Amino acid sequence: MFTRKEVRGGKSWSFGGTPQMTSSLPNVNLSLRDLSACLSTTIESIVVAFNMPAYHSIFLEDRDVPVIGNFPILPLRTRTRGPAYTLPPLPNTDDLDVSPESESYDCVDEILSLFRANVLFRNFEINGPADRMLIYGTLFISECLGKVKPTMNSRDAEKALTNAALDNFAIPGDVSFPLNQAFEAPGDRQDAETLRQFIAQVRQEIAIRLHGRLYPGGVGPSKFWLSFTKRKFMGKSL
């Protein structure tokens, strides 16, 4: 018996049941990479077959979040200096186990938890500013995965992810920003600089926490993450 809860648009959906084997499986020797690729393909087939909707941000419910243009400046659990309100650190809890009900749960936790489901979608309806944060973070994870090679050790991957986070990047309103049709430009230079600093905080937090998922216990990289390297959320890239 198993039960799993997922948060979709602020609502909890529970799935439970007792799996039953109806036929024996052939004795096939598959590598982890093959299994991961099969899993990715199977998930995509299920999503298409059942026309499942993409996951939206639970932070859409937070109406008092400041925005620059239409990009939200959400609180972060981070040690990186910047304009984001700093959430308290996790109380003896691993990043992988933080609950959406925790006061320390932030948009980076959400982006990472929803990435492998949402990255399969080419269309995504934006329901508010928090969804734009979800879009940007998902695209940045895809960029990060492209920097990590299957043969990389943990230290080399950490350097690659850090460099990706610190690289020059476009913000809404810049000519090279790929989503200007859905993201508004900042109103002035000061707002633009604040937005750039906030996005830099988000990028660095994503890089740090993604590394922990790619190399759990220092071993990796995880094939179950790298199998999504070539996926393009909304057909876009940063």
UniProtKB/TrEMBL annotation:
<comment type="similarity">
    <text>Belongs to the ARPC3 family.</text>
</comment>
<keyword id="KW-0009">Actin-binding</keyword>
<protein>
    <recommendedName>
        <fullName>Actin-related protein 2/3 complex subunit 3</fullName>
    </recommendedName>
</protein>
<dbReference type="InterPro" id="IPR007204">
    <property type="entry name" value="ARPC3"/>
</dbReference>
<dbReference type="InterPro" id="IPR036753">
    <property type="entry name" value="ARPC3_sf"/>
</dbReference>
<dbReference type="GO" id="GO:0005885">
    <property type="term" value="C:Arp2/3 protein complex"/>
</dbReference>
<dbReference type="Pfam" id="PF04062">
    <property type="entry name" value="P21-Arc"/>
</dbReference>
<keyword id="KW-0963">Cytoplasm</keyword>
<dbReference type="GO" id="GO:0030833">
    <property type="term" value="P:regulation of actin filament polymerization"/>
</dbReference>
<keyword id="KW-0206">Cytoskeleton</keyword>
<dbReference type="GO" id="GO:0003779">
    <property type="term" value="F:actin binding"/>
</dbReference>
<dbReference type="GO" id="GO:0034314">
    <property type="term" value="P:Arp2/3 complex-mediated actin nucleation"/>
</dbReference>
